[in-house]
Amino acid sequence: MALSNSNLEDIEVQLLLEGVYRYYGFDFRNYAPSSMKRRIRKVLATEALSTVSALQERLLHDASCLERFLLGLTVNVTSMFRDPSFFVAFRETVVPLLRTYPFIRIWHAGCSTGQEVYSLAILLQEEGLYHRCRIYATDTNEMVLQKAKQGIYPIDLMQEYTQLYLKAGGRRSFSEYYTAGYGNAIFRNSLKENIVFSPHNLATDSSFNEFNVILCRNVLIYFNRTLQQRVHQLFYDSLCSFGVLGLGQRESLKLTAYEQCYEEIAKGERLYRRLD
């Protein structure tokens, strides 16, 4: 009995992701299937290919195609002070905890093009804590990490970002944090001093330090349960006792193996404190 086109596509996608993992080491095999197929179809259109098998052949024989593939597969929807109530809650509940540490390590996993990392740096500067922080900003995609390192964003976004900054409890004029030039906003080097941008794959890489705070917002929604479980274990193992985990609005610890390992410290804002 012949397979339907949908079943055939499923097989092609599985073979493609297996090939990418075995040849390049990037593991997308446990990403949510429906989301993955949508993104692969967009890559097919960009590459002017008609089948997933044709994309697999190009990927395995043309390394330059890999960068385009990775850019198409990773979701880079972000903004400065995204979900401003989260940052308000961070100021009110997490900052007082951080004041008790002589040195603060923060991991921002899945940092994308960096807007939320700089938002955090601004918040910590305003709270007088940035000088004793080290923020590790990681992402699978090295192309978006390069954009994050630059800290340069279109100037026409600054009006929107200013409103989000004010809603997030910002205490200064937002324009103090960047200079305008050539249609862009260039964020000040003082915000970058304590940020380390580095590649890290949540699907395959291990813990690399012990952290007081881990933020991973709007990333887990793209993973299946197997990968979500792996990442939750990774975060739990990477947090110090009473360290803080911050997730996205559509993510939660409910129904995970780690639900009882944390206490919620800001109701509705997905901020959790690791229990000892």
Q: What is the helix tally?
A: 9
> Which word captures the global form?
globular
User: How widely separated are the two ends?
Assistant: 56 Å
How much strand content do the residues show? Answer: 15-25%
Mean pLDDT: 93
Q: Could you characterize what this model shows?
A:
By secondary structure, the chain is α/β, with parallel strands linked by helices. It is 42% helix and 19% strand. The strands form two sheets. Strands 6-2-1-7-8-10-9 form a seven-stranded mixed sheet. A three-stranded antiparallel sheet has the order 3-5-4. Helix 1 runs parallel beside helix 3 and helix 2 packs across helix 4. The longest helix is centred in the N-terminal third of the chain and has 20 residues. It starts with a helix and ends with a strand. The model has no long low-confidence stretch (mean pLDDT 93).
Topology diagram in text:
Elements: H1 5-24, H2 33-47, H3 52-61, H4 64-73, H5 84-98, E1 104-109, H6 115-126, E2 133-139, H7 142-150, E3 152-154, H8 158-167, E4 178-181, E5 184-187, E6 195-199, E7 211-216, H9 225-238, E8 239-247, E9 262-266, E10 271-274
Parallel strand pairs: 1-2, 1-7, 2-6, 7-8
Antiparallel strand pairs: 3-5, 4-5, 8-10, 9-10
Helix pairs in contact: 1-3, 2-4
